[in-house]
Amino acid sequence: MQSVLVVDDEPQVRNLLVDLFGSYGHEVVGAGEGQAGIDLLKQRKFDLLLVDLSMPGMGGIDVLREMKALEIQIPSIVITGFGSIQSAVEAVRLGAYDYITKPFNIDELMITVNRVFDHMKLRKENTVLKKQIKGKYNFRKMIGNSRRMQVLHRLIEKISDSDSTVLISGESGTGKELVAKMIHFNSSRTGEPFVPLNCGAIPRDLIESELFGHEKGAFTGAVNSRVGRFELANGGTILLDEIGELPFSMQVKLLRVIQEREFERVGGTRTIKVDVRIIAATNRDLEKAVAEHKFREDLFYRLNVIPVKIPPLRERDDDVLLLVSHFIGEFCRRKKKPLVTISSEVADYLRSYHWPGNVREVENAVERMIILNESGEIGVEDLPQHIVASRGNGSKQHQVSAVEPTEDIPAHVPWTEAGVDLNGILEDMEKKLIIQALKTSGGVKNKAAVLLGLNRTTFLEKVKKMGGTLTSH
Question: Domains along the chain?
């Protein structure tokens, strides 16, 4: 619910707007003259002001000037007749968000109002976020002292205040969104929205609407107009994550936005101009995708003005223990547990593991170890089993499994000329692992699930599926 102040000297218009906003669940107050509106603004806080430009005494322009003098800052929409468009433009210069003309269409009015509310919501979220991240996204706060990370720190510092397009590349889990946020929050756009969009997570038939918005009736299900991510990011930064997943048909439309900084909503004809810094991110080789005609070459070069490559963790293994220490502190604070330490043997395991999931995998592994640990010092028994197993299998390589396909089949697998019952073997192995996990955890199912890398629901489903065969053990 939002609080709305309507200032209009015409009772019919004022009452219509009061009833309209009230029907949407908003708290609405009406005032019949400009000075009465100013008095209300001095007394309490409103989320939105609708003010008529042409009123006896203090008109809408005077109201806006008085608000500016009193440093009252709330989004304003001015109401004007067709003959006073110039005054409406002057009102926008004084800080009004937009204007509508009489006689106004209710649907068009609500589109404008909802756009204001969307913008307000995003600004509030960004204000809260900025307070939370003050210091968090300082370029020096990115964990890592290795030479490659120091180079990355310096690059982020150099490019933050530029408006040039950035292409961040790196494997999954390396922190591409974190780097994008660091660039934004260390730039002159820090007070404006940071709007991320995962291009790979949006259905192909909805991606255009998600990016550029749509008008009412633009397609089946479009019962209302909707602002797209580019409009929401106006003045700030948009992050197009997984840009390599963007459908080929959409790439030419994105190219136009980069070049012209303008677009139309789906189903609309009005050209919308935006001031947005574009950051793209990918875990794919876009140059290879260009060579295979899966990604537009012209779009690639427009995005790749400033390339930023994040090294995988296996190429900066000196940073592993720094990250582990950081996440131990984070999780112990979050879970209100005493700070734990790690044994020297565990440190060796962590340094030698190749971390295919990069920083995200470190974070998940540390959380698991904190949950399982009871002694105050993390030991080998608290490590994920695949990290322990990797030690004897050349952990700096990208193993798919501990046993290479060329090796002999283990003796305990009943291989015959007729083949094997693979499903039966897997079910038997799963049962044995679940039994062992329950023994290790002392029968605590939550811990047993964590030991197996399963969530609690999946673990309980497997136990239930095994039924009575489990209880006998």
Answer: 3-127 (3.40.50.2300), 138-215+226-311 (3.40.50.300), 314-392 (1.10.8.60), 425-468 (1.10.10)
